[in-house]
Specification:
Blueprint: H1 2-48, H2 50-53, H3 56-83, E1 87-89, H4 90-123, H5 128-131, H6 134-148, H7 150-162, E2 171-173, H8 183-217, H9 220-259, H10 261-289, H11 292-302, H12 307-328
Antiparallel strand pairs: 1-2
Length: 329
Amino acid sequence: MQNSVNSSLDIIQLMNFSRIFMQKVVLVQVLVGIFFYVNCLMIFTFLKKNMFREDTRYILFAQTLLVDSVLMVMSDAMLIWNNYMYRIHMIPCIIICTVVTAFTICTPLTLVAMCLERYVAICMPLRHADISTSRTRFLGLLIIWGISSVVPLFTLVAYLSVVPPGSLFSYDVCSVELMLGQEWQAQIRVTILQLLFLLMIIIIVFTYIKIMTAARAASSDNKKSTNKSLRTVILHAFQLFLCIMQFLSPYIEMVFLKIDVSVYGHLRYADFVIFIIAPRCLSPLIYGLRDEKFFHALKHHALCGLDSFFSTLFKFNQWKIRPIHTIAL
């Protein structure tokens, strides 16, 4: 009798766990779908305007949107594979992990480049046009992608140097941790990331101090623009902090994996929402909604070109309501 009661309780707990797990999976898919749609709409807006394609800040913004969109989709797929313990071939897994690592580093590097662009625009306005040229933009993008490739290439080469040849044709649950089989690999990887992020933090603090100094010395006409750039740098610094935590979270998760598998599952889900989805939804907010030029263009495409119609309709309704208020008075 006692065994049957315990068995029934286990079944109920398993059903509750499955229901909660499915709710979490559905919620993540909804969040990823919403932000992926918004990012695609913003990329479409960027491509439709020549003005945006010739401005450094919007080019960097579009790169962030593209990288974040691909990273969200690939990270979401890897999260589902891990939760359902789905095994894939190791060669595609290695390619996916390498691309995900490169894209993960590319986002904070692009944020730093955006901060530097704001620093040049605010602190060196007379030289901004000479510095922000097509050649400089190409060189900057080349540097961003070159630095972004250092860690994934090191991880790939180190993994191929120690893994048995037959393991490349096996199947396993895909995760970046599979490529860090040796302790020295993880330690060198963490060291490179720490040095890289320390350098990025120094650059962001430098730009913040310079822009803050310029904001205090600016005239009343330029103070609004300077203060807006200052808030943009602060938001980028917060994004960078979340990106740093994204690299540290797998090492924290591995500790809980050895203690309790259920806690590990909840922690992995929370880390995905906070450190992967959250930073990717800040980019549309910072440049897509706070920037007036881009916001008006985005609204035009989001409403399928009917924004002028809705604006006219809104003004007409206001005009109809105004006499009623007059009569009431």
